[in-house]
Each structure stands twice: as structure tokens, then as C-alpha cells.
């Protein structure tokens, strides 16, 4: 997966099984370059990268994505916008559900399934 720069987090609301992060989609992000010349838009792959990396950071998953489910991109995210990234954790299934929104506007959503089979090192410790 492409590794992009994580956006500034303006506000966070952290729960046991869910998080809400208010993000600033800065106009100078590398991801905007060349996507598209007439009107820069935040690529879907960047949105996925942020959801995976931030979800893993908060919920302790390794970044080994097994599958993407019900992935939808409804509206464009433009330079300079603020959006809320909501992520819910389903521990039993090893899945995160994410959505990018701003009030009533929904930008993208989906579900990320992780490879949660344990990987052990020679000393018995679990590794990502």
C-alpha cells in the first residue's frame, strides 16, 4: 500500500471501539500533485492509507490488509477541506469500518479486513 503523509489531526474523540478524528486536508499534500491538473482531489488510495494507518495505530492491528469491503467514494475531497474520519472496530471479526464525512456530507466509506493470524518470531513474540 502507498504510504502518504498523515494529515494534521485537529480534534479527536477516542472511545473503546470507535474513534472520530477531525482532519485538515492541507492543500500542499504530496498526494494532490498530478491528481488532477484542472482540480486537485484527494486520491482514494490516500484516503484508504489514512484509514488503515490511523485505525492500526489506535486499535493495534498490523497493517496487513486481507480485504477491502463495501468501498464507496461518494464525493470529492478537495485541498483545504476539513473532514471527520470515523473508524469503528469489530475485534471479533478483525475489521474496521471507516467513513469520511463533514456534517451531512459523506465522502467515502468502507470496511477493512485484516489478516489477524498470529505471526511469531523465534523468541515467541508476535510481530507485524
Automatic annotation (TrEMBL):
InterPro entries referenced in this protein's UniProt entry, alphabetically: ApeI-like, Dehydrase_ECs4332_prd, HotDog_dom_sf
Domain ApeI dehydratase-like: 16-111
SUPFAM superfamilies in UniProt: Thioesterase/thiol ester dehydrase-isomerase
Gene3D superfamilies: Hotdog Thioesterase
Protein name: Thioester dehydrase
Organism annotation: Shewanella oncorhynchi
Amino acid at each position: 500500500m502507498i504510504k502518504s503523509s498523515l494529515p494534521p489531526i485537529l480534534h479527536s474523540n477516542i472511545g473503546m471501539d470507535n474513534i472520530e478524528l477531525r482532519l485538515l486536508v492541507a492543500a500542499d499534500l504530496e498526494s494532490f500533485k498530478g491528481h488532477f491538473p484542472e482540480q486537485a482531489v484527494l486520491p482514494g488510495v490516500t484516503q484508504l492509507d489514512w484509514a488503515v494507518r490511523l485505525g492500526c495505530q489506535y486499535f493495534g492491528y498490523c497493517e496487513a490488509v486481507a480485504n477491502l469491503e463495501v468501498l464507496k467514494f461518494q464525493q470529492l475531497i478537495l485541498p483545504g477541506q476539513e473532514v471527520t474520519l470515523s473508524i469503528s472496530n469489530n475485534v471479533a471479526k478483525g475489521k474496521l469500518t471507516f467513513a469520511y464525512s463533514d456534517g451531512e456530507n459523506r465522502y467515502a466509506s468502507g470496511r477493512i479486513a485484516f489478516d489477524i493470524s498470529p505471526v511469531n518470531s523465534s523468541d515467541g513474540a508476535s510481530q507485524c
